[in-house]
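User: Here's a chain of 334 residues. Predict its fold as tokens.
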Amino acid sequence: MDKQIFSKVILNNKYINSIIFNYVSEISLIFNRGKHYKWNDLIENPNLLAANNYLDLLKQWFKKRDDYLSWWDNKDGHTMIGLLQNVMMSGGIDMMTFLIEQFKDRQPKFTLNSLLESACRFNRIDLIRYLLSEYSLFKWDYYSAMVFAPYSKNMEILEMMVDLYNATSIAQDNSYVESKTSSTKNVFNSAAFVGSVQMIEYLCKERLEDLQHSDLYRMAIDAGQVETVRYLIANFSHLKDVDKCKSSSGTVRLPLDFALTKKNTDITIMLIEANCKTNFTNILGTVANYYGDCKLMDYLYSRGHRLESYPLDDVTMFDSILWLDHMVVNLLLQ
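Assistant: Prediction complete.
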């Protein structure tokens, strides 16, 4: 293609140029979740510069501000870690090394470990290799990096972090593995959340000791991973009634009860068919009163569940009222 002809005929044509601009603008809105930024705003926002990999402009931004560290401490919505995480998503090694140098005196707000975790999470194996090579003498927290690795959906990254942690676990503090069961500190939970059966099976071979502290069902249910829940029922049925699903108020919920709160009909039905336990005395009444899931109510009714303790006046969900009204009419016609 002759670029000069293209420029003259296409780009200099106001009508065609306007169409191209509008389409580019619409595509940009999709990729940027409905947000547009003017150029003057972009060059004054370090987070945007980092997210779009504008290294030279970011250097100019820092150069214009001798007091940038105090600016950073006082500016709402901007954090050093947030800026560096933007680099992890789309920036290069040059930008990362530049920012590390800028913030090297700001420990512990900024740590190399947080960068490694973010690089694992955002599937940046190039940045992972650079960090491990450039700071080979640093005391890395390989366990936390391993926990974030499944979010990359990259088996190579997970295997790398597992191997590194296994090789150094004797020298590292291993106590939190035994005491903490939060979703942010268990590699099985991360694998279940992203729905990777391959990763779960790999971890069973390499990190089986972490399984007992995991909450596989809750994480898979929370993420709506239907096929992963199906796999767990088939291979980890002994965990389907474990009381680890705690609500924000601290109330213990069984996996089936947690699935009800997430309003995932397919997963709920799957757990019911697996004979999972529930803390609800009347599961059909609970669904009718709080969730209004007509498909699930039809399913429960077909399995013999009834509403003996839930009169119509107690039901608040509009869809449930319509469903109950329909059922009453059918009963009267029989």
